[in-house]
Amino acid sequence: QLKLKEAEFDPTQMLEDMQLSMQAVATNKGIELKTECDPSVPRSLQGDEDRINQILYNLVNNAIKFTDEGEVYVQMSMDEYDRWVIKVTDTGIGIAAEEQQRLFEAFWQADGSATRQNNAGVGLGLSIVRQLTEMMDGTVKMESRVGEGTTFIVALPLKQIGELEGERVNG
Fold this sequence. Notes:
This protein is α+β, with helices and mostly antiparallel strands and 171 residues long. It has helices at residues 11-29, 49-65, 97-100, 122-135, 161-170, and strands spanning 7-9, 32-37, 45-47, 71-78, 84-90, 139-145, 149-156, 159-160. It is built from 5 helices and 8 strands.
């Protein structure tokens, strides 16, 4: 059983670090890796930074892997329920509706014709993404069209550090 380690982290810095480390992989494939952090995202959130990084890197890695031209676009924002949202959109091969249900199973892979040696195990990464997201009481969903690309949206109800300080003072 995985245990979560709660600590303060900077989501903007997390996004910048990911872009620095994944930029070369994207560039080598001839695709663009773009990032955007909405001003609504606080400078400081409380959560398991390592596990969240695992989610982020799995999603970005898969997006790059299955995109042969175009871009991978990573956005961070807050939703109307104050959840922190990571959205990863690619212009890759896309996933057929009937295959989307199986996508989060441990060993499964989209469309055999698009499969290459180095793509083994994409399903494993996504099952980890779902498991970690659910452990944090978050949600993960996807939108995809064959030939147009895929978007993964992870929403996590993380505490903002300002909120924590307020609770202590008032309580």
